[in-house]
Every structure is written in C-alpha cells, then in structure tokens.
Specification:
mainly beta, Udp-n-acetylmuramoylalanyl-d-glutamate--2,6- Diaminopimelate Ligase, Chain: A, domain 1, UDP N-Acetylglucosamine Acyltransferase, domain 1, 2 domains, 10-stranded mixed beta sheet, 37 strands, globular
C-alpha cells in the first residue's frame, strides 16, 4: 500500500505521458494506458516502474509492470512482458513521471485545514494539552494522549492507547496501537530527495507514507521521512532513542533497538532483533540481516549478514575490528 492520501490524476496514454515529461518515445508506444507509477514489487500490469541498479535485478526479473524506465545495460534483466523505456537518467525521468500522476506530492506546506482540537469531534475522546491542532482526514483511537503544541496534520491514523508528546508534527502516517511518540518528533514529511541543478534543484515526489507498527517508541527529536515510491516502515516492538533520523523508504524490522543520533540514508532494510549503538550511520540501499549488532559510532557501507556483530568505519566483523585496534 502506497500513500492513500495523494490523489492519482491518471491514467495517461503512454505516448502522452512520455511527451509531457520530455522523454523520447524511441519505441513509438501509442495505445497503452498507464494507471500508476510504482516500485518493482508493487507494480501491476497496468503500471509503470523503474529499474536503475543491478542490485535490484532479482526484483526486476519478477516485476509485473507493463512498462519500465531503465538503462540500456539493465534492460536484459526485465521480463519480456515488460516494455523498456530506455533513458540516460532513470531517477530523474521517474521523478517527472511520478509528478504527472501525483502533482501535489512535491511540496510540504503547512496544513491549512488544521484547527484547534477543542473545535473537533476529538475534544471528548482524547486527553490533550494546550494549543493542539488537528487536520482533516485524521482518525484517533481510544485512550490516547496528545501533548502541548502538537499538530496532527491531515491524513493521519493513530491507533488506541497511544501517547503523542509535545511539539510533535505528524502527517501522512499510520500509527498502530500502543505506540509512544516522544516530544519534538517530526514524522511523515517528505524525504531529502532531489537532483542537483545549477539553476534550480529538481525535487523528487514522495508519495509513500510512514507506517509505525504496534508497541513502538520513537524518541525525542527524531525524524522519520515518508517514502518516495514505497513506504517507510517501523516494525513492531522497535524502540528508537532520541535524535534518530530515518530517511525515506527504510524498512526497520521487529524488536529492534536503535540508540541516539543514529542516521539512516534512504532505502535500506533492517531485519529483526537488530541493535545499533549511538551515533552509528547506515548508508542507503543496504540489507542488514536478523540479529545483527552494530557498534556505536560505526559507519555501515556494505550489507551485513544475519547474526553478525560489526564495528568501526567501514564497519567490519567485531573480532577483526578488535584485532586491528589493539
């Protein structure tokens, strides 16, 4: 499930879609309609997807998408049922296409629909502090607490028995039951995705959401960005310390413990029962296995297999790290 909140203005004729985004129609596609832009896994036979790195070749070979924006040297990995749109810059082309389907997904202005909770139906259902604002299309379960100066912007679902601290901003987020979000968190804003340009940087649309599963705790001052073409997910019973940044598209497993000031670049996947020490950094597009321990201050720039302990920069097996630093 991608963002149920942004309106998809498709479908588009593929020929018109490529014309609108200044992508050369090398195959002379004419008749097909495209209903959505999606990732390799979620795409249906009515959708268009993208494939920009060999790291995703196994997913590309199984995609059900009818069209794929890709590079010439990657086209061989796609199934015959998927028509190839060859470009020089996959991500830039996909950004333009996604913006056509979701024109309101690039900006993140403040929510003009938000109003004081005392003027909403939640005033008798929720225990709340002073200056709490609630936007449109918000649902809040039973026995929830919301602290002072917090804004639950439009398009948020919060389960039962949740505690939302003071000075928190949440949008485009699904929160399950028994979740604590501590003071000063910002959750569901757009990620740091753009293409540098000397005249004007080009923003990448973020049409995903943040999903926080049950029994989680998000520490003070933490930020969790919503996904671009997939969702940012926090697994159940995962505890995140203060001032942690989780960028777009990350998937954090169940029962993870992440200490303060850890930073995640985009699109990495953490398994279950992962423990990360303070001030560690995890690069983008990595796979961290189950039961992994990452020492504080480490820099993880490669995949980490199951049941492994790593430390240092670049992060290496703990025994090797200790041997090299005696």
């Amino acid at each position: 499930m991608l963002n149920p909140f942004f309106k998809n203005v498709g479908p588009f004729n593929i020929e018109k879609l490529l014309f609108n985004t200044d992508i050369e129609n090398k195959q002379n596609f004419k008749k097909d309609k495209i209903y959505n832009a999606s990732d390799l896994v979620s795409a249906t036979n009515k959708d268009l997807t993208f494939f920009h790195s060999k790291n995703y070749s196994s997913l590309a070979s199984k995609t059900k998408a009818s069209y794929c924006v890709t590079l010439n040297n990657l086209a061989q990995f796609l199934p015959d049922t998927c028509k190839k749109i060859i470009v020089e810059n996959v991500l830039l082309s996909m950004a333009k296409i996604t913006k056509e389907f979701y024109p309101n997904s690039v900006v993140d202005d403040f929510d003009i629909t938000a109003k004081d909770i005392s003027k909403t139906s939640f005033k008798k259902k929720v225990k709340y502090g002073k200056n709490v604002l609630i936007g449109k299309n918000v649902k809040i379960g039973k026995n929830c607490f919301i602290g002072h100066n917090t804004i639950i912007e439009k398009n948020v679902v919060i389960g039962s028995n949740c505690s939302i601290g003071s000075n928190v901003i949440i949008r485009n987020t699904l929160v399950s039951n028994n979740v604590s979000i501590l003071d000063g968190c910002v959750i569901g804003k757009k990620g740091f995705g753009f293409f540098p340009n000397k005249e004007c940087n080009i923003r990448y649309p973020h049409i995903g959401i943040v999903i926080i599963n049950e029994n989680c705790e998000i520490g003070c001052g933490s930020t969790i960005d919503r996904g671009s073409l997939s969702n940012t997910i926090i697994g159940k019973n995962t505890y995140i310390d203060n001032q942690v940044h989780i960028a777009h598209n990350n998937k954090i497993g169940d029962n993870c413990i992440i200490a303060g000031q850890v930073g995640f670049a985009g699109s990495s996947i953490l398994g279950n029962n992962v423990m990360i020490g303070g001030q560690a950094g995890v690069s983008g597009h990595l796979k961290i296995g189950n039961n992994v321990h990452i020492g504080g201050g480490s820099g993880v720039i490669n995949d980490v297999s199951d049941n492994t302990k790593v430390m240092g920069y670049p992060a290496k097996n703990l025994r090797e790290f200790i041997k090299n630093n005696r």
